[in-house]
């Protein structure tokens, strides 16, 4: 059974959005570190800055939950989660690195109300190094994983369309055979009706109508055949 539904374009759009969200996670992590560095040395904390800090950490955590298919917080469609798992878009260790960033940021955030200390400053500096190295590598790897999922969906869609086209072409061939048989039968019926004479005139008219319908059907079938033959050459 295929991993995707007929709404493949929506699936591709969601995956593209997830890639963009990974880029946003990079930005959010930088904002978090920058805010922590700026607010760390202040005796009077900026209320707006603290509100933004909370917002940025929360949004990072929400996106991390969404892109991790095994997470109970993910709101992605079940079919899309299966695809992400199948291509191993987000590994367990990568998921842990995302959770690590949120955990450390939350821990430092909770200590901002305390007087400035060398320990807290060191923790922020360590978080900054983590964001610039490990977290950046992790997010880049996740983007590659989601890109694999996107390639998988596109490949599945193309395969699905190809199978549909093969089925349609097979059906067209069968229709052509049936149309030819009907034409032969109608011609034979006309010949037989003419042999009967006056008594066969009514049947001869019916045979003629059947032949006309068969000819019209042939035109439609030929048009379909030409259309799919052109698509094969594109």
TrEMBL record:
A Pfam match is MCPsignal
Q: Which cell locations does it reside in?
A: Membrane
Q: Which UniProt keywords apply?
A: Membrane, Transducer, Transmembrane, Transmembrane helix
Q: Does the keyword Cell membrane apply?
A: no
The topology of this chain with respect to the membrane is: Multi-pass membrane protein
One GO location term (cellular component):
membrane
Indicate whether Repeat appears among the record's keywords. no
Q: Which Gene Ontology terms describe the biological processes this protein takes part in?
A: signal transduction
Tell me where in this chain the Methyl-accepting transducer domain is found: 161-226
Please state what the protein is called: Type IV pili methyl-accepting chemotaxis transducer N-terminal domain-containing protein
- Report the superkingdom from the record: Bacteria
């Amino acid at each position: 059974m295929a991993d995707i539904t007929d709404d493949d374009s929506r699936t591709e759009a969601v995956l593209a959005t997830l890639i963009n969200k990974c880029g946003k996670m990079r930005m959010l992590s930088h904002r978090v570190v920058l805010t922590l560095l700026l607010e760390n040395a202040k005796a009077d904390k900026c209320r707006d800055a603290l509100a933004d800090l909370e917002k940025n950490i929360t949004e990072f955590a929400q996106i991390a939950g969404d892109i991790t298919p095994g997470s109970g917080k993910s709101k992605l469609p079940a079919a899309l989660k299966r695809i992400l798992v199948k291509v191993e878009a987000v590994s367990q260790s990568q998921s842990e690195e995302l959770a690590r960033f949120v955990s450390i940021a939350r821990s430092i955030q909770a200590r901002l109300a305390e007087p400035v200390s060398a320990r807290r400053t060191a923790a922020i500096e360590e978080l900054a190094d983590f964001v610039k190295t490990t977290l950046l590598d992790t997010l880049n790897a996740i983007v590659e994983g989601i890109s694999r999922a996107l390639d998988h969906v596109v490949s599945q869609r193309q395969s699905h369309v190809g199978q549909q086209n093969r089925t349609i072409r097979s059906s067209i061939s069968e229709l052509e055979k049936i149309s030819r048989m009907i034409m032969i039968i109608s011609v034979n019926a006309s010949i037989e009706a003419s042999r009967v004479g006056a008594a066969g005139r009514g049947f001869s008219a019916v045979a003629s109508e059947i032949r006309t319908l068969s000819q019209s059907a042939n035109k439609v079938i030929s048009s379909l055949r030409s259309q799919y033959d052109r698509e094969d050459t594109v």
